[in-house]
């Protein structure tokens, strides 16, 4: 037994020495059998929470679009289409107002408790929308819904970037948004079912949508409060001693160390970087059309001459297209090691779709434009992959994600307002703005990629042997850590 103990200690010391001499990016990428087993355990334990959260968040946010073709919704509430547009935008006002406190709370409060409470609260708000009687009440509730739903993306982006290796993150970010699109596909069928639900007392079909989804969200929130794994070493992963060592190595590879200490130097470093503003502008520009089509796609399809029921069904291929594009783009990005080039191609596809919508006079063929413009979603997925892969330092990463979500909100708020009723059915001014925004996104992505290539070349010329990391895993930013290699 003593000999075995000495052997184990020797192996552990050798492993520690190897870890100390490794830079963040020189750690082995090829997974051992033990790590593959660990990753499977993480996937089966953690990713269902991610998928369910993104699924229900998209359904809840889009319920207003689902019922937009039900005539009783307008007669019961006295809404016009212009006021309906504002309901879409008020969601993002709440979303925006939550981002700054969200940045603080994410670092100070246990993520599982925080997410669970917010889920319950937004479920209550959604349920209350069934009893909104006028524009003012619905607008206030949409604001609160956006306020509480605002925690979704920052929470998941942060958890994925701390639990998964950088090389793995692009795939799982893709899975996030595929969950959204699956919700869009199933939401179409659910919407048709809701239209056919019976009236029970004062509960008309459009009210059933809010009651059903609000109740489901409350139940999900309670489960997240108790069971969401929110750290790489969470007890819900049931880690063995060997797996705990592997988790430490994976944390070192991520260059993200979870801490409740706010490092203000990370803020100042971020705001001095030109790419911070490029990422922010990209998020605004690519989400102009996202906000518009999330709210208005069913209405635009009815204006092409289709019935209300067919409009909901014909919108389903939009989400199928998104799923296909995300699967293709994330797998190409991972296999080729290229994030930004793939994002630029997806943005070009989106731009082609918008041009089709503008140029084709009328008829069902315009649906091609609606489907292709969905290339904006994989563009945004790869934008997030670029941020999570290339920004390190816990406070800096939270700041980048938070700022990006603020810009996401601005784009989604402004986008629907550009679709004015007087410009229907072709909406020339709005489509022109969306096309121009896509052009700017491609240019900004090109600049960001150029900065990463230049930074990597500069670091390759450094004597890395003179700057070795210690065995302690420090909360260094990508700028502070000379061994950090950017992933263009």
From TrEMBL:
Transmembrane segments: 42-59, 84-102, 114-132, 144-164, 171-194, 206-228, 276-300, 312-332, 339-360, 398-419, 431-450
Gene Ontology molecular function, alphabetical: transmembrane transporter activity
PROSITE patterns: MFS
The entry's keywords: Membrane, Transmembrane, Transmembrane helix, Transport
InterPro entries named among the record's database cross-references: MFS, MFS_dom, MFS_trans_sf
Domain Major facilitator superfamily (MFS) profile: 46-449
Compartment(s) where it occurs, according to its Swiss-Prot or TrEMBL record: Membrane
Membrane topology recorded in Swiss-Prot or TrEMBL: Multi-pass membrane protein
Entry keyword Transmembrane helix: yes
Xref: Pfam families: MFS_1
GO cellular component: membrane
Source domain of life: Eukaryota
Listed name of the protein: Major facilitator superfamily (MFS) profile domain-containing protein
Species per Swiss-Prot/TrEMBL record: Mucor saturninus
């Amino acid at each position: 037994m003593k000999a075995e103990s000495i052997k184990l200690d020797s192996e552990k010391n050798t492993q520690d020495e190897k870890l100390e001499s490794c830079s963040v990016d020189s750690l082995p990428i090829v997974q051992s059998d033990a790590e593959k087993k660990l990753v499977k355990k993480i996937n089966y334990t953690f990713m269902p929470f991610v998928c369910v959260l993104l699924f229900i968040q998209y359904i809840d946010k889009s319920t207003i679009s689902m019922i937009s073709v039900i005539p009783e919704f307008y007669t019961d509430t006295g809404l016009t289409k212009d006021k309906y547009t504002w309901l879409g935008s008020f969601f993002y006002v709440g979303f925006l107002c939550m981002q700054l406190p969200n940045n603080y709370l994410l670092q100070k409060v246990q993520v599982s408790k925080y997410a669970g409470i917010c889920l319950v609260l937004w479920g209550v708000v959604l349920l209350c929308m069934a009893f909104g009687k006028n524009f003012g009440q619905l607008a206030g509730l949409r604001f609160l819904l956006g306020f509480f739903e605002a925690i979704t993306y920052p929470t998941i982006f942060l958890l994925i970037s701390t639990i998964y290796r950088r090389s793995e993150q692009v795939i799982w970010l893709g899975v996030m948004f595929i969950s959204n699109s699956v919700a869009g596909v199933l939401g179409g069928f659910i919407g048709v079912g809701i239209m056919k639900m019976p009236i029970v007392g004062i509960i008309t079909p459009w009210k059933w949508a809010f009651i059903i989804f609000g109740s489901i969200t409350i139940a999900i929130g309670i489960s997240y409060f108790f069971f969401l794994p929110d750290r790489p070493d969470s007890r819900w992963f049931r880690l063995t001693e060997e797996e705990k060592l592997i988790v430490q190595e994976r944390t070192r590879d991520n260059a993200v160390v979870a801490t409740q200490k706010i490092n203000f130097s990370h803020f100042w470093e971020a705001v001095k970087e030109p790419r911070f503003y490029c990422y922010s502008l990209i998020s605004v520009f690519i989400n102009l059309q996202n906000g518009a089509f999330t709210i208005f796609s069913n209405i635009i399809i009815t204006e092409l001459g289709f019935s209300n029921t067919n409009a909901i069904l014909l919108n389903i291929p939009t989400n199928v297209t998104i799923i296909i594009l995300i699967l293709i783009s994330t797998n190409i990005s991972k296999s080729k090691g290229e994030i930004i080039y793939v994002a630029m191609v997806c943005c070009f596809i989106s731009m082609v779709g918008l041009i089709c919508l503008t140029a084709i006079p009328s008829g069902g063929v315009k649906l091609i434009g609606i489907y292709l413009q969905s290339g904006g979603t994989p563009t945004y997925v790869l934008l997030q992959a670029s941020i999570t892969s290339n920004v390190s330092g816990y406070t800096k990463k939270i700041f980048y994600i938070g700022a990006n979500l603020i810009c996401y909100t601005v784009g989604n708020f402004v986008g629907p307002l550009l679709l004015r009723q007087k410009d229907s059915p072709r909406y020339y001014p709005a489509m022109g703005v969306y096309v121009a925004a896509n052009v700017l996104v491609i240019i900004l992505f090109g600049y960001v990629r150029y900065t990463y290539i230049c930074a990597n070349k500069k670091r390759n010329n450094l004597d890395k042997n003179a700057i070795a990391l210690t065995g302690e895993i420090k909360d260094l930013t990508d700028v502070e850590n000379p061994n950090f290699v950017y992933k263009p």
